[in-house]
Please model this.
Amino acid sequence: MAGNREFLNRRLHSLLGVIPVSLFLVQHLVVNSFATRGEESFNAASHFMESLPFRYFLEIFIIFLPLLFHAIYGLYIAFTAKNNVSRYGFFRNWMFMLQRVSGVITLIFVAWHVWETRLAAAFGAEVNFQMMANILDNPFMLVFYIVGVISAVFHLANGLWSFAVSWGITISPRSQQISTYVTMVIFVALSIIGLRAIFAFV
Model:
């Protein structure tokens, strides 16, 4: 019974990591990329997202609750996983360990980002280009955001590989190898989008 519950929890954790958490991250990166077109473009894109109908319902049930489950159960997986890269330095062993490490870093980053933006907005602050420019004007915060975005994107890309394996989409060694290349391209592409957005605020 406990084994079945853990199997279902891991499946749910994996599914929520892709739908909706990964989709939300991609959407967030796309909105932030409008900063590369200037302050006015970013503010317009940000305002559009804030003006969506049923916004609070979407944020609570489509973003925050799935993210909360994925984060809490992800911490359980991270701290109970048996990493063996010291004995077996294979590529996938490293990816297994880095998935757990990047998950913890991403959780810290997301929690801080929500605190700085969403909670600030709840107290009357305006989430706009100038707010992000002020945050990233601090060199420490700039490095923190760079590390946080790269960790989040890596966690997404490598998580897609794991999802495809655990859900039986990529079964053969050949399909898993192709999936590795595809997810690496996703990692590089989304990292470029995320970093360009960060430096657009600087």
Summary: The mean pLDDT is 91. The radius of gyration is 18 Å.
